[in-house]
């Protein structure tokens, strides 16, 4: 897959994120990453979102509320076992939006291996590896 002139491997699996506050997560992913909601989320009888589909420029991500009674619990900060690599066209801009919207920057922007990279935790416990085109600005500190 090519995104903004940069080649990325084709994803091997469709991410299905479990979050504690699905409505807030959907809002965050649309505001920060520019995702769009595909159709109406499935709302369960108890008000929890059972399924939502978000369209990112590079593919689809599913989101659902946690259902502990089914063994589906949200990620915990500091205990995330999966990282999501997200190709972006403006690493600096996305990282700044994420930080301003309550995300935690784990690694500030660096340029290496032909990409401009940064790592953040969203407010819902998921780790995102932002990968964008190089700019020649190696400081990358947008704090």
UniProtKB/TrEMBL annotation:
<dbReference type="InterPro" id="IPR004360">
    <property type="entry name" value="Glyas_Fos-R_dOase_dom"/>
</dbReference>
<protein>
    <submittedName>
        <fullName>VOC family protein</fullName>
    </submittedName>
</protein>
<dbReference type="Pfam" id="PF00903">
    <property type="entry name" value="Glyoxalase"/>
</dbReference>
<dbReference type="InterPro" id="IPR037523">
    <property type="entry name" value="VOC_core"/>
</dbReference>
<feature type="domain" description="VOC">
    <location>
        <begin position="10"/>
        <end position="133"/>
    </location>
</feature>
<dbReference type="InterPro" id="IPR029068">
    <property type="entry name" value="Glyas_Bleomycin-R_OHBP_Dase"/>
</dbReference>
């Amino acid at each position: 897959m090519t995104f903004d002139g940069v080649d990325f491997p084709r994803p091997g699996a469709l991410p299905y994120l479990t979050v504690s506050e699905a409505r807030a997560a959907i809002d965050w992913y649309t505001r920060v990453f520019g995702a769009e909601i595909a159709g109406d989320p499935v709302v369960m009888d108890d008000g929890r979102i059972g399924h939502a589909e978000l369209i990112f420029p590079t593919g689809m991500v599913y989101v659902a509320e946690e259902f502990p009674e089914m063994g589906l619990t949200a990620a915990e900060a500091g205990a995330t076992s999966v990282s999501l690599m997200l190709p972006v066209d403006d690493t600096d801009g996305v990282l700044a939006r994420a930080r301003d919207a309550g995300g935690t920057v784990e690694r500030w922007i660096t340029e290496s291996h032909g990409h401009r990279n940064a790592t953040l935790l969203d407010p819902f416990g998921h780790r995102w590896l932002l990968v964008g085109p190089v700019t020649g600005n190696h400081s990358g500190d947008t704090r």
